[in-house]
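Rotation project, supervised by the postdoc (A.L.). Task for the rotation student: set up a whole-complex structure prediction and record inputs and outputs verbatim in this book. Inputs entered:
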Amino acid sequence: MSSTLLAVTEPESRQDRKRRTRQALLDAALDLLADRAMTGLSLREVTRAAGVVPTAFYRHFASMDDLGVALVEQCMRTLRAVLRRARRSGAAMITDSVAVLAEQVRAAPAHFRFLVRERPGGIPAVRAAIATELRLLAAELATDLGRLPVMAEWETDDLRMAADLMVSAMLATVMALVEAEEFDEPEVVDVAARQLRLIALGIERWRPETP
Amino acid sequence: MSSTLLAVTEPESRQDRKRRTRQALLDAALDLLADRAMTGLSLREVTRAAGVVPTAFYRHFASMDDLGVALVEQCMRTLRAVLRRARRSGAAMITDSVAVLAEQVRAAPAHFRFLVRERPGGIPAVRAAIATELRLLAAELATDLGRLPVMAEWETDDLRMAADLMVSAMLATVMALVEAEEFDEPEVVDVAARQLRLIALGIERWRPETP
DNA sequence: CCTTTCGGTGAACACGTGTACACCGAAATG
DNA sequence: CATTTCGGTGTACACGTGTTCACCGAAAGG
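Outputs recorded:
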């Protein structure tokens, strides 16, 4: 054990250090949320897991709700990546899209679990944040759908309806994936693909009748 | 204010009284869950709202988790009523089915809110209970679908897939209904009906190819 | 170099919590 | 009528919580 007392690590800018502990708090929270909901998460627990004293929390967030909203932002980035990646690898291939989704869920399960768990969850601010983000995502998907040849003539209203349905199905799949043991993940993926195919079939035959 | 000290209420059998306070606990919990998740609900709060001393709780439930599972049972009865009522009033009419759902949600919002909120929620026992109940419901719906002329020749596997999709859509609708202000409930109902119609269209054209 | 800024500290507080325990009184049982 | 059963009571305890406050030390800024 050498005892050179020279600074072995870079001095680290002050705002860099702040960013780091802020991220540590977010990570710690996400970790603890593996088996709990945000409601059952205490400030002290988070700071303890982040290796920081309780009062330091307030240097970064006004409250746990605040941290929750920040988590929504972070996790939503991961979810949006699914759409983006699916778009690149040929939006038409349903099987591929579902595969991308499954892959992303496997890569960052905590992010997806957080979203599906807190979506109807007990914290109004978080719930609202997720809701608006999902609305945005659905709108994005709707315009994507509108660019497909089959749906070029669709009313924006119907596009939105179809997009909402697909988002619902996707979230249900996410929940199943997050809950599933890994050995029956293929089954979940298969079912999701067939469901999407069923919807696609419906889309082909849709006509905007007014019943 | 007369002061006849005669027993004005029936003596009430002992197990009747027990049932009554047990139900009072369940009702109190459901009330408090209007704006909270189960994780954020304390035993003392529930007993306070039920007009009973904390320790009395244990005469009825081993823990809050236990009470949660009991709530699942109760709320699921309400949800199953939707399927039953929809079956009676002509299963073919999509519009009617959605109307029945909306009506039931309006009649007992707390029951539905509890189910959608705790489904991915933080309490394993409750989550598991809801999951199995929903599996049962989906299975039931699958056999229902199998009786329809259009789907008579379907594989049970595909029936299950379609039923799962419909349950997912239904639960998404329930969440929207529970969250929605009453004045845009018609919009939600309309979208749900169109989504179901889209699925129905897909079903008509489905053939069990193996891709 | 001196001063200010500010992320992190540690002690302290009032409070709500889950649960154990001994106890009560009336319904149930003989 | 005597006894047992049992739903509900009241007290008590140890514990984790959110938030307060004054304080520290080093980076940032003049």
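Student's summary: Residues 11-14, 17, 42-45, 54-55, 58, 63 of chain B lie near DNA strand C (CB under 10 Å from a C1').
Supervisor addendum: The interface with chain A takes residues 35-37, 39-40, 95, 116-117, 119-122, 124, 131, 158, 161-162, 164-165, 168-169, 171-172, 175, 179, 191, 194-195, 198-206, 211 of chain B (CB under 8 Å).
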